[in-house]
Structures are given as C-alpha cells and as structure tokens.
Amino acid sequence: MLALVLFLFCNPAVELQSSFIIGGDFTDGVVHDSLLYLTDGRGIRVLTYKRFEEKGFSLLPGENHHVQIYKDTLFVGSNRGVRKLPVAKAVDPMPDYEWLNKVTVSAMLVTNDTLLVADRQGTVYLHNLAQGGVIDSFTLGFAPVRMLSAEGRLFLACDTGGLWMIDLQSGSPGAKKVKLENDPPVLDILEYKNLFYLACAEDGLRITRLKRNNMKDVASIETPGQLFRLIIFGDILTAAAGTADFLIFSLDDPQQPVLNQEENVKGTVHNLVSTEGICYLIAESGITRMNILPNSRVTTGLHYATRGVVGDIKTHGKIGVIPIGDEGVMTFSIDEELRYLGYRNFDAKCERMYIFGSHVYTLSSNYVVHITDIKDPSNPKPKGFHDFESLVTGLDVAGEMVLVAEQERGLGCWWRCPCGPLRERGRLNLSGRTWDVRIRKKLAFVSTSNPASIHTVDWSDSTELESIAQLELDRDYEKICLYEDYLYALDNSGALGIFKVSRPTRIKQIGHLELPGSVQGLAVSSSNAYVAAGEGGVYQVDLRDPTKPELLGSFYLGNSIGVALADELILVATPYAIEAVRTE
C-alpha cells in the first residue's frame, strides 16, 4: 500500500499512508464467479465461496455496509454514498472507483437494469444502470432497511416504520404505508407462491397476501430470537434470527410454515447471502456456511472468523501495539506500510493499554492487568498478570515501580518483580474515584472525582504516598497526558484541559477547549494535540499558545477509538483497522 491517496477532509488536508486491517464488521455480501464479496466496514473482503480462502481486501473510505452486483460491477453503499468499481478491482488494496451518488445509504437492491438506493432520510432513488442517470425518486416517512420488487410494486421494509409500498405501474406512483395488524416492525420481505413473508423482529414471522394495495394476514408464527432476514431455497424458508442464530422452516404448506431446525452458530446472525444450495450466515465477527440439503435439512459447513474490535493504540519506536477486544494484543511494524508482526491471546476484554520499554500493560474490564513482553515483537510473550480489587483506569511506570489508579481504591504503588508478579508497597486513599496517573520523577499527577481534582502526589517513599497539592476543577478528567511542563486532560464529554505543572505544588489551569461529541483518545506533540472523537473522527488542536488552544479541523476515517504518533505519522484506531495518515 505504498501509494498515497488524498481524502477530502475539513482542514487539515490529510494523506492516507497505509492501513492495517485487523478484523471485520460483516454486514452484507454477494456471490459472483465462485467468489464471495463481503462488506467489511472499511471496504470489501473477497473470499472463495466454498472454502473461504482469502483473495484480497479493498480499502474504501467511510463505513461500508451494503453491496450489490450488476454484471461485472460492484455497487458499495456506505455512510458517504454509493461507489461503483469493477469486480476485478475488489482485490486491490486501494482500488479506483467512481461515485454513483453521495447519500447516507440504508438499503440497496438491483432489479433488472435498475439500482434502487434508499437513504437514511427516507428517500429512494432509482438509477438506470443500462443507460445511466436517475430515473425517479420517492420520499417515505422512514428509512428502508430492505426492499423487494414484485408484481410491479416496490415493497420497502422500514423496521419500526412498518411496511411501505410504491406502485411503479401507476401513472403517478407515490409511497404508501401498508396496513398490517398491530403495525409490527418489518425488517425483511420476500414473495413465494403469491404469499408475502415478513420478518417482524421480536414479533416473529408474518405470512400475508396482497389484496389491492394492502396486505391481508394469512398466519402469524412466534419464533425464537428476532427475525432479521429471510431467504427461500425451494420448499425451505431460512431466517437470520439474531441471538437465536439460524432458523429453518418447512414450506410443505406455504400458508403455515413449520419450524423444524434451529442451528447455533458463532456471533449474532443478522443477514443471509445465498448461492447454489449454500446459505452464508453473516455476523459482525465472522461468516458461517450452511449447506441446504433436500428434505428440509441443513448442515453446518465452514466458519470464517475475524479478530475482535480494535481498542487503544500505543507505539514504541517503529513498533505499534493494539488490544483486540477480548482476543488479546497484536504487534505491527510502522514504516511505509503497516505490517502484522505478532499476537498474544488472553481471555479478557481489553480497552486501554500502556507501553514502558519492552513491556505492555493491558487494562481489562475484569480488574486484571496483563503484562506482555514485546522484546521480540514477532513473538509477544506473557510476563505476568495481576488481579486487582478494583477496576484499573490508568497506570504509569518508573523503573521497577508501577503507580496504579484504581477507580475505587485510590492510588497504589507496586514493585514490579523481575520474575513478573506485582507486589504492593504503599497506597494513598483519595476521595471519590481515581481516574488516571502520570509520573514526573518522584512526583505523580493524579486525576480524581468528587471533588474533581488534579492531585500532586509525592511517592519518593514508596510505602508512604502523600498528596502535597490539590487543584479542584469544575469537571472530571478521565484521561491525562504529560508533555514537558504541561499536563493535557480529557473529559469524556468533550473537554480538553491544559495545566502548567512546572511548579508541581502550584498546578495552574491555563487553557481550555470544548470539543464536539465524545472524546476517547489523545496524542500530543510539541505544537499539536490529536483527539480521537468517535464518530467525529480525529480533531487537530493547535497548542502553540497553550493558553488559547485552537481547533484547526478534523479528518474522518471511521469511528475513531484511539490515536498515537510515530515520527511524522498519525496512527488512528478505528473498529477493525489501524490507519496511518500524514498531515500536510
């Protein structure tokens, strides 16, 4: 991925240098010429449809959750619009593509020579794929999640908005809501032998018959789980049922389907893709192949799993480390390309992480801190772990000593034994919750709540920790970062606070900036701060005058979870990927 691609951002301009895809957020797929094309959050993942051998991955900006195919062209729908790219280009890391439109897509459907695109504002666009251009558009009261073209009509499943219909043969077609008994949510619709089958979430399966412009109930069947998606194979009806996984109904009597098999698979199944007697069950973390056999029987085939969700991100020289949800930690090299190096698995959900020398400290949600040695980054090795009595929300290391911010137990001072285990030396009980800690020689800065404060703690005697100064604040700062004589602090609601700590016993707040949205990560250089702000992307803040921090702009690569700096690169953690960008 050596080529640089220029993305459109709002100040500053940013070049994407490289991406390292960790996992996937599978949501949709199509099969074409023995290959399976899956929307994977950050782009399209290509697998062989029988054995799940990976053939390639194409990176596309935005969050990509819909895909349709027409002849040899893929149409990929995202939160930024619909792109078209040749099928052959889907295995290129950074393919060339064209924009078809730029709406936030909620559903797509190809029927004959027409591509229907629904946006989240409830408008449906009809694109002529043979001749080009938009044929027509219709506005509904709700955003469709699934569409069906049948009997000269377009049916639109709009979740809690119910079922809508457009009579395309009418001289003046318009969108009309279909009356259904009890007005259930509708997540999918399909037709079979003049009957319509509706996936109605927790309301189960509804069988109806079209009567003029309304639906007449034929049967209603309670089902386990929530029905998301329906596909028919001959006289078998299959359903994606969320936590109930995969349901198989016999259609010997189409008016009264009989549930005769339920298959449990990995993940929460929310979509189905079919081809040649095979049904693919799509979940967030993987895909399972089910073989559809005669006599209403189904057998499990292969499963393809991806890594978990990316969390924080930290760097040590040319090495990067990330926690992968409840899968462990992964190391990668930082150069012109980001490349996988090694992996260590442990069974804990990890979100925050710190690197000190060759040791990685990973904070988990079950009070355990795991220590990993990355001296050989291609072979990360366990160095120990410690089970704390309270949730650990921050830590810092100086030599063999570790200061730990425990949310409910204050600040602990621990000796890191060369053989691995941590041994407690001293503790300072602080009022309220303890959020984070940063060490400066034999002093430490600690953020707490109730009252919201920054404490200066003397830990020169590791057995007798003492708070020697306290600055009360108007809000809690859950994350703090020390850079030279300044302490930078983040409030989860979006505030960046700047404190001068050159005189540790007289800490002074000198700057403040309110940022939009929810902030999750912070990286600081001599002149800029970069703030990971979830759906807001990454904010760049000018720190040249720390008394007047200024928001320069933002760039968006996806839901930004963490951010780190490595030489001239900005590394951004998004779900399932690490992105390396360079600012101009």
Automatic annotation (TrEMBL):
Domain of life: Bacteria
The name this protein goes by in its record: WD40 repeat domain-containing protein
Taxonomic lineage: Bacteria, Bacteria division WOR-3
